[in-house]
Amino acid sequence: MFILAEDTERTQGEDAQSSNITAGKAVSNSVQSTLGPRGMDKMLVSDSGDVVITNDGATILEEMDIEHPAAQMIVEVSTTQEEEVGDGTTTAAVLAGELLSRAEDLLDDDVHPTSIVEGYHEAARIAQETIDERVVEGSVDDDLLENVAVTSMTGKGTGDIGARPLAETVVEAIRRVESDNVDRDSVRVRTQTGASSSATELVEGIISEEEPLHENMPRRVESADIAVLDLDLEVSESNIDAEYNVTSVDQLNAALDAEESELQTYADSLVDSGIDVAFVTGDVDDRVASALANEGVLAFDSVDDDEAEAISQATAARFVGTVDDLEADDFGHAELVRVEKFGDEELAFIEGGSKAESVTVFVRGGTEHVADELERALSDGLDVVTAAIEQGGVVPGAGATEIAIADGIREEAASITGRKQLAVEAFADALDVLPRTLATNAGMDPIDALVELRSTYDSEGTAGIIAEGQTGRVADPLEAGILDPAAVKREAVESATEAATMITRIDDVISAS
């Protein structure tokens, strides 16, 4: 009896486990050399020839064309890490791969997958408790947040500007949108090539890529009243198909006059309302644009819905669907709306909005690759600063927290009975891959560095890999200002454990052709 289709492929038992674990490890190994401040970059080339150069784990795994289902689970680990806390994607992927490697050894020793899963979950629980114990005491002030941002961005492509000035910009941006909590969505990042990375700046407001509708419109409007219009400013079209029989020049002129009158009414309504700047989500007829230009009104059309929403929030403008009853209460306000030209492009800067709840990090770069990588670094910096403020403070970086977690797990492993103890100890050993990789990428001998880390931790209570020049040293990361959000460590442990245990439990793979 055939239950499955004849062309269905099925892999069972040890073959299935080995295949899945090997695939997961391969994905993890592909990003391992990018970990830490001395991590290397990857060049990813698509089928169409598009090139991405980065050492951001989430970007690398997203751009890779991965088909194996188990390997895709490791990609999901990185994606989840990015969505939840914005950083630590490489850490999570590398840890997941090492957990799979240790699980493979246990399977070879006839440890049942259920025992491995139970042991890993027990170790993850201990890890979370240890992370809570390692949280740095005291208030999360600007200096601490800058160190968190610097730690996140060091080693990433930042062009001719160091991580410290960028960290100051990041913290200033987050503080601008912080009230009872941090509105991370109110911090936007906009890239523009044509200048060095050191020209990157923080803009109090929104930057729109739309260009003015008419060349005679003003390029600078101070103390601007702003309207956000969700409509088309064109000749109205009938909702039904109709034909008009024009039999004379007078009738044609009358039709044209009616069109002109309708369009002029749009322009007159906007001018009479007293607005200085209009952002229109729909299309604007050239004749309306010309009339507005003659009256000194700056206008933009085809504004993206998300951008229009951001402008509305920043300036307190209401979305308006008609020009008939425009009132002052519908308007937003900005201290300055200016249009700047960059090469062949023009950008509109809406600064000092009446709500002032939105800011934009205006990223500059000499090339598109530099600007894109700097954008990724800044986005990570913004995310980790937000996580540090909102999700439980910070912990020592540079591999110090992983050393502490592994030590805590080993201490409790002695009290765990049965074969589950082997899995708990394997989890602790897997954590060593992170400081060991940091040491390797920093030019240190990984075994010697790991031995020194453990020894220093036992005597001093904390120890991490501090990269210096072409090598590194073992020292206190707190003194070096190397800090990570506790939320990044928690999420990395949780997501890596879930992926590793899920893959370990699979003993049957059924693939339809």
Automatic annotation (TrEMBL):
The keyword Nucleotide-binding applies. Pfam families: Cpn60_TCP1 (PF00118). SUPFAM superfamilies: GroEL apical domain-like (SSF52029), GroEL equatorial domain-like (SSF48592), GroEL-intermediate domain like (SSF54849). Keywords: ATP-binding, Chaperone, Nucleotide-binding. Residues 1-21 are annotated as: Disordered. GO terms for molecular function: ATP binding; ATP hydrolysis activity; ATP-dependent protein folding chaperone; unfolded protein binding. PROSITE patterns: TCP1_2, TCP1_3. It comes from the Archaea. NCBIfam families: thermosome_alpha, thermosome_beta. Belongs to the TCP-1 chaperonin family. This is Thermosome subunit. It comes from Halocatena pleomorpha.
